[in-house]
Amino acid sequence: MEHFLTHDFFSDQQYGFIKGRSTVLQLLKILDDWTLQLDLGKQIDVIYTNCEKAFDKVPHHALISKLRAYGVDDTLIKWLQDFLCNRIQSVGINGFFSRWFSVDSGIPQGSILGPILFLIYINDLPDFCGEDYKNISLC
User: Fold this and answer.
1) How far, in Å, are 7, 29, 43, 123, 126 from residue 73 at the CA level?
2) DSSP H helices in 7-126
């Protein structure tokens, strides 16, 4: 996390899970932006998304590629690969279990590391939204 904060890698639109950037601050900022746009007679379009299952959808290979692109140390990347990859899971219902399946995506939940890895994965999302969506706010 320190590497990302020191090099100012996190997007200005990112508010969740970063010290000093609460989701309450994000709501105040976006409300201020909307009020300004309305005062100027402009239209406001809003899309709300539910990120409830988002941690489960992060592809390991894409996250590792992003970590390399941000210059994360190879030793740390190897440790993170061990944390994320080569996991298997089975589903059990009423005492019956499926066969074991490889887990190719998802960040283990309930860890301190999970939200940080998710932030890294979605950090460049505003870059792909275009200039018309420069006020996009994440988490």
Assistant:
1) 14, 34, 45, 19, 25
2) 23-39, 60-69, 74-84, 113-122
Q: Which of 111, 112, 116, 91 is nearest to 101 (CA)?
A: 91
For 24-81, what is each residue's pLDDT tens digit?
888 888 899 899 999 999 998 887 777 777 788 889 999 999 999 888 889 999 998 9
Residue keyed to tokens 């996009």: 136
Report the alpha-carbon distance of residue 120 to residue 64 in Å, rounded. Answer: 10
Distance spanning both ends of the chain, measured CA to CA: 17
Are the beta carbons of 56 and 105 closer than 8 angstroms? Answer: yes
Single-letter amino acid, residue 3: H
Provide the pairing of β-strand 87-89 with 96-97.
Answer: unpaired
